[in-house]
Amino acid sequence: MDDIKTGWFSELSTLWPGQCLSLEVEEVLFHEKSKFQDIMVIQSKAFGRTLILDGVIQCTEKDEFSYQEMITFLPLNSHPQPRKVLIVGGGDGGVAREAVRHPAVEQVVMCEIDQMVVDVSKRLLPFMAAGFQSPKLELHFGDGLEFMKQHRDEFDVIITDSSDPVGPACTLFEENYFELMSSALRAGGIICSQGENMWFHQDIIRKVMDGCRKYYGSVSYGFTTIPTYPGGQIGFVLAAKDQGVDFSRPRRELTEPELDAMGLRYYSAEVHRAAFVLPRFVRQALAAPQ
Fold first, then answer.
1. I want to staple 158 with a disulfide (CB 3.0 to 4.6 A). Which of 14, 78, 86, 201 is the partner?
2. Which among 119, 161, 246, 260 is annotated as catalytic?
């Protein structure tokens, strides 16, 4: 709470040394430690309600939709028929909110390790937590790795909405996790994981992608823009069991009436394709080994 005493919250992390984002705070709405992490919700002056885990901004009322829509619809629209979806993490409810909107999705299974995040989001972040009310959703609390060991050949798409690779989310960036996801996928399945920032975390991204290449036939990296994440950008690692999957070409292109009916504000087929157009330095850094 020391940062809040000045009227500002400042996000400090070893993952982006020498810099921070600061938000002016109007009110601290919640602050407690769960079994797993420090959880805070603030009312910020510029970005509305903001969820902060272990001192790192997870979502804000103003800009969360760009991340939630992209981490969800990039993989869902890269799959020909994503009937059954698993979400690992995502305790704020944003990915669930988006996944249940997709017309092809029949069931969404969610496994979140920290029940307090879900409870707080339902109470203080209703704009995120709407998906929890859907009859399509089946919610479990527990470790995502252990959950997938019990669910083989079951899901069309697995989305990992994790915090950064420190604290409880560390295991979600390890090679054995991506191997487990592969075994939990049906034939033709696709995964999408939070993929860090292409300006600051090329080593982390390259390690994850190289690990994925051992278990998946197609691996790619896309990104979205979001002002309250470090560098104003966050990426996604996508992988498919099949070879030759071009993630930059959506298998399903949602029409403008469909986008309007689903309430999407960031995602479109054009934005989907553009998400995989990477700067030269990123393409070179993440290229598959020859």
1. 86
2. 161
